[in-house]
Design brief:
Oligomer: single chain
Mean pLDDT: 88
Structural class: mainly alpha
Strand order of the largest sheet: 1-2
Length: 532
């Protein structure tokens, strides 16, 4: 491991983040315009930003200058180290604005302790960068706009990847960027569109920005102002789920806004290489892409099933739903009124279809936005939502989870083993469409699947030490490891993660990082031989 190369790469990422922090800092400065200078600088809504900007730019610039010379060519070890350590360092520096704000105002009006403020700040920003969308904020609408914009912007940066952004801004990093690109881009494939990696990153960011612009304009047509439209676009295109409203998208009782978000959540879960080719007029690639067919088929089948159950069976009684664990349960009368309001959303066939489509797409793509409290839905649908959490989006999308291509290859590998039981001598290679999947790649994908499940089980067991409900413990891990956000029960769609003890939050923070960087990129650094 060439540590000088790693430190140089991480420092470059710090410089990128320091520059991006200027945007939310500008919003915070504008919102405090009636407070005279220099008192404005010391307001908790703003002071955290300039501290983070100075710390990021100074540290990044000094380390870059010190380690610019005598660096060695990068190998896969350095690439994975830069990606993993870069994300950790950016989460720590990026948490400074929230840390300062929590120290002064807490998360509900009262100042909080340093360890709790630090844990909550890192949780919120790691959730942002990894596009998880799990939040510790109990009253989102009371948070200053600068901080809300920053947490949403971390989604947008983390969705396509802060490393790929660095490759666009700093194409001459002085080291090979391919191993960093490979370590960060979601999914088991990292095809290049162009021979030069910086050009590939620029194309991906261009498609990403174009789709984001279109969605922002449509949301503004639907009635949102520029601030809320941008923040919700960041959460949609990054499949993150941070909202500026306490009720998420459910705050907007608008068919138009709901369907715009549904469509763009679906698009964000598609491989961005497909978007690029379609924008160039190559529609035939959609007919040939088996992963896209599987992705669309899973979502379509789930929407039909959810719609049928919601429309014909309706919601369980308030008495039954109230038996499910909630950390801060409502009074019986209030909860009965809440369930009645939720039942009203699915009374008609169209209402059932709209709510089913929104939540199926939100959970499958790992966006995590909410239009309804699905914790009061029938138990069958709640369990199916947990299953959909594992699927995720396509490889090369901004979605989390296991990824559709891995699920498809695992199904084919399992089917092949069943055939081999009856015909041991048969040679049956695995194909996705016309593409032959190499056995080494099949082994890697099966290993990833097994490791994902082992991490889910082991982390869930650990979480039961800090959470009194098994459903909450398990789904909180799945929601963070698959980068979804909301789980069930105590961390459901209208709940939050603020009440979870600090050790539990750090377990979930680690799971967010593992899920976003595809597990292997992080775990490989725990081998002592890597650092030699």
């Amino acid at each position: 491991m060439y540590k000088r190369t790693v430190l140089f790469g991480v420092a470059r990422l710090l410089q990128v983040m320091g520059l991006t922090l200027l945007i939310p800092a500008g919003i915070a400065w504008f919102d405090l315009s009636d407070i005279p200078f220099p008192e404005r600088l010391f307001m908790p809504e703003l002071s955290g930003f300039w501290i983070a900007i100075l710390a990021s730019l100074i540290c990044g610039t000094v380390i870059t200058a010190v380690f610019r010379e005598n660096r060695t060519a990068q190998t896969v070890r350095e690439g994975f180290a830069i990606v993993t350590l870069g994300w950790v360092v950016m989460a720590l520096f990026g948490a400074i604005p929230f840390f300062v704000w929590f120290l002064h105002t807490g998360n509900g009006g009262a100042a909080t302790s340093i360890p709790l403020a630090f844990t909550n700040a890192v949780f919120e920003i790691m959730s942002g960068f990894t596009t998880t969308g799990a939040t510790i904020l109990t009253d989102i609408e009371a948070v200053p706009r600068g901080l809300l914009f920053w947490r949403s912007l971390t989604h947008w940066l983390g969705g396509m990847g802060i490393v790929t952004l660095a490759l666009v801004i700093f194409p001459a990093l002085g080291v090979s960027g391919y191993h960093m690109f490979k370590g960060e881009v979601p999914g088991p494939t990292t095809e290049r569109l162009q021979p030069r990696l910086a050009r590939t990153a620029m194309i991906l960011w261009g498609v990403y920005a174009l789709l984001s612009l279109v969605e922002t304009v449509l949301l503004m047509i639907g009635g949102m102002d520029w601030f809320h439209a941008l923040c919700h676009t960041f959460g949609t295109m990054a499949t993150g789920g941070f909202s500026t409203r306490n009720l998420s998208i459910g705050h907007y009782n608008s068919d138009f806004i709901h369907w715009v978000v549904i469509v763009f959540m679906f698009l964000a879960g598609v491989n961005f290489l497909l978007h690029y080719n379609v924008l160039r007029g190559n529609f035939r690639i959609l007919r040939a892409d088996r992963e896209f067919h599987f992705y669309a088929g899973v979502i379509a089948a789930a929407v039909i099933l959810f719609t049928a159950i919601l429309y014909f069976d309706g919601l369980p009684s308030a008495e039954y739903s109230q038996t499910q664990y909630r950390h801060d349960p409502m009074a019986s009368g209030d909860f009965a009124a809440h369930v009645e309001a939720e039942a009203g959303k699915v009374e008609s066939l169209y209402g059932s279809f709209r709510q089913a489509a929104f939540q199926v797409v939100a959970i499958t793509t790992t966006t995590g936005y909410g239009s309804a409290d699905f914790d009061v839905w029938p138990a069958t649908l709640r369990l199916l939502l947990v299953v959909l959490m594992f699927f995720g989006g396509c490889a090369g999308s901004t979605g989390g989870g296991i990824k559709m291509i891995r699920i498809l290859i695992n199904i084919k590998a399992a089917g092949r083993e069943i055939i081999r039981m009856a015909q041991p001598r048969i040679i049956r290679p695995i194909k996705i469409g016309a593409t032959l999947i190499e056995e080494t790649r099949v082994g890697n994908i099966v290993s990833f699947f097994v490791l994902f499940l082992l991490l889910t089980v082991s982390s869930s067991l650990l979480m039961t030490l800090f959470v009194p409900d098994a459903m909450t413990a398990c789904t909180s891990v799945v929601a963070c490891l698959a980068n979804i956000g909301p789980g069930l029960a105590g961390v459901g769609s209208i709940e939050n993660y603020n009440w979870i003890p600090q050790p539990g939050k750090w377990i979930l923070i680690f799971n967010m990082l593992l899920g976003r960087l595809e597990i292997f990129t992080v775990l490989v650094l725990f081998r002592a031989s890597i650092w030699k």
